[in-house]
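Example 3.2
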Amino acid sequence: MAKSFKDEHLTKFKTALLNIAPEYFKIPAIQGQIHLNERAFAFELYHQLRLVYTGHNWYINGELRKGLTFLPSYQLDNTLIPDLVIHHHTTTNNNIIAIEIKSNPKVTGYEIIEDLEKLEIYTRPGKDCLNYQIGILLITNCDFMKKFLNMRIQNRIRIIELLNFHRIAIWNINVPLPLNGCGGSVKLSEDCLKIIRINNFENNNII
């Protein structure tokens, strides 16, 4: 698939993500409490993706078991279900983006690795594979790089191994910063979004 085609979908995903209002990242509740509701955030991202893709021949679905019977480990692990997907129905030839979401600031290295391993499976190319072109692990409400540097060395090594699959990246918004001058709409500044790929670790002595 041509790079420009992937870039088109990555731009749409970024647009949808930055259209999410800050209160969906940490939902205000009564008595000053804050709810970290991953599902509510995922629903809003789904809504924004639907808006961005209106008029385009692509489908956005949540927690879809599409084609899981193709996977060798299906009988052993039925949790291989992406949080969100962008794809065409009835085929694995036009699967575009598989998305996993982690919104808990206390997310562990093990949980991050688990989702990256799922994304590697979703994006694995070939016959009897799901063939998603892009895998995104979206981490919110924490600074991924700061968390990464405090992980056990085994976890850091494994994360780098998984990011070596260039079809996978970590998208990280720690604090959602509103963009000024948007009129009545709320958009986030691109400055609050960090996209972590394998090249962020190359030539850096972080292991």
